[in-house]
Write a structure and sequence with these properties.
The protein is built from eleven helices and six strands. By secondary structure, the chain is α/β, with parallel strands linked by helices. It has two domains: about 60 residues, no CATH class; about 100 residues, Alpha-Beta Horseshoe (Leucine-rich repeat, LRR (right-handed beta-alpha superhelix)), CATH 3.80.10.10. The strands form two sheets. The chain has a four-stranded parallel beta sheet, with no helix packed on it. Helix 1 packs parallel to helix 3 and helix 9 packs parallel to helix 11. It is elongated. The protein starts with 10 loop residues before the first strand and ends with a helix.
């Protein structure tokens, strides 16, 4: 109830305060959030009630970005966001350092609500090859400009999944393509055999990014 008596409070930081679900649910209510413009509560345990209130507030305020880093999010939270259409219109989505698995990414990247995303951070989660395939196959990421995936942590073979995507923008694919072996680049460039044979590595990279 304290926050309701602080109408001038615009910014509140309580990250990594070891708050449990009961505390965060009591804190994150429509009444408490009414006047806040910035609330940082990551690093705590989020109850479903409090999480939903946070998403509803962001939606009502017309927010175009959500930073949900270190929120202990799971696939169930992703499902809640997608089914509630809370991501519609979002241009920036930070989901790093959570517990999101392949299924969570399959759910997320199957949603047309992510079509406005320009920046995405998925570093430090629990997904693998299936999650990467969901990203690579999504038709809704054409506006994406920045994507962080901790690519150094993945098997080099996974770079092929993103690098050879037919839907992701070239700027997103480039760092993955640059990690592919030269012979694999040569194999996938859509040029005649003799032309491909005499291309150097940099030319092959540019040709592959141009083809897809």
């Amino acid at each position: 109830q304290t926050l309701q008596h602080l109408p001038s409070l615009k910014r509140l930081s309580l990250q990594f305060c070891a708050l449990d679900e009961e505390c965060t649910d009591a804190l994150i209510t429509p009444e408490n959030l009414r006047n806040l413009r910035e609330l940082m509560v990551y690093g705590n345990t989020r109850g479903e009630k409090g999480f939903k209130a946070l998403l509803q507030h962001a939606q009502q305020q017309g927010a175009t970005g959500l930073d949900l880093s270190y929120h202990n999010l799971t696939d169930e939270h992703i499902t809640l966001m997608v089914e509630g259409h809370y991501l519609s219109g979002m241009r920036s989505l930070m989901l790093d350092e959570n517990f999101i698995s392949d299924q969570g990414l399959i759910t997320l990247f199957s949603s047309p609500d992510i079509a406005d995303l320009e920046e995405l951070n998925l570093g430090g989660n629990a997904f693998g090859e299936e999650g990467l395939q969901a990203i690579a196959a999504s038709p809704y990421l054409t506006k994406l400009r920045i994507m962080y995936l901790d690519i150094d942590e993945y098997d080099p073979g996974n770079c092929e999944i993103i690098g050879l995507s037919t839907t992701l923008p070239p700027a997103i694919r480039r760092p993955f393509v640059e990690q592919l072996p030269t012979e694999l680049l040569r194999q996938h460039v859509q040029r005649n055999f003799f032309l491909r044979t005499f291309m150097d590595r940099e030319t092959l990279i540019e040709a592959l990014l141009e083809d897809k």
